[in-house]
Amino acid sequence: MTTTAVTGVPVETHLRARRDAGRKLLVPYVTAGVCENWTEHLHACAEAGADAIEIGLPFSEPTVDGPTVQEASDRALHRGTSLRTLLADLRTVRLAVPLIVMTYYHLVAREGLAAVCAALAEAGVRGLIVPDLPLDESAALEQAAAAAGIDLILVAAPSSSPARLREIAQRSRGFVYAVTAMATTGERTALPATAGAYAATLKQHTDLPVLLGFGISTPDHAAAGARSADGVVVGSALMRRILDGAGPADTAAFVTTLRTALDR
């Protein structure tokens, strides 16, 4: 079957331009295939003020996903979601913000690094996050992603040594994904007190945008996280709403509350 490549929006240049214009960055997360109309939630996020959108490719054995995203992944897998259905769905999506896929290394390696990166790029994806890939083993994927025009976004953790944080910041592309705590994804009642200082440390090592993720659950969390970081990633709080039946209009309403908090 002949397919036509979709022109995606580059992650790094888009986010840098918005950050440098004084805007705090907002990246909602949506699990691919969680419901029949899941791509409508992508449109809702973009129209409500998202600066990029992270899309989770469901995997049966996740290591960083908490209960909410695991539930979303299970639902998506039961609906038959795979890399191929994800690519087919995304080829129908046209948005003015970058699309970033998050997945696990097993799925990438099974299909082949270069093949996966090329297929993602053809579908309009311009960013890739593989959280379980050790930094010391990421060189081959970094090369494959760069060859396909995809930013390989690296994940930094509070437990990393200063030298490792510096290397992650310098090798990441698109932005640096700063995990707020050594825990799986999921809604929290409060952000860790150390998140702000940790983000500030990372910003000393790179001019890339630094975004905080994991546990950003409310508009107040988003605003607090973005005081030191350049923005936030919001996953479980949005996916809980979708799992409970929220439609695209509800998604837009929630993302609007996050946007408003960041713009205050």
Strand order of the largest sheet: 5-4-3-2-1-9-8-7-6
- Give the low-confidence spans: none
Shape: globular
List how many beta strands DSSP finds. Answer: 9
Instruction: Report the β-strand fraction as a percent range.
Output: 5-15%
Quote the distance from N terminus to C terminus. Answer: 49 Å
Mean pLDDT: 92
DSSP helix count? 12
Percent helix? 40-55%
Summing up helix and strand content along with how strands pair, one would put the structural category as: alpha/beta
Biggest sheet, open or closed, and with what strands and sense?
Answer: 9 strands, parallel
Order of H and E elements? HEHEHHEHHEHEEHEHEHEHH
Rg measurement, Å = 17 Å
3D architecture notes:
This protein has a nine-stranded parallel sheet with strand order 5-4-3-2-1-9-8-7-6. It has helices at 11-20, 38-47, 67-78, 83-90, 105-111, 113-122, 139-148, 162-171, 195-203, 219-225, 236-243, 248-263; strands at 25-31, 53-56, 99-102, 127-129, 151-153, 155-156, 176-179, 210-213, 231-234. It has 264 residues and is of the alpha/beta class. Helix 2 (38-47) packs parallel to helix 12 (248-263).
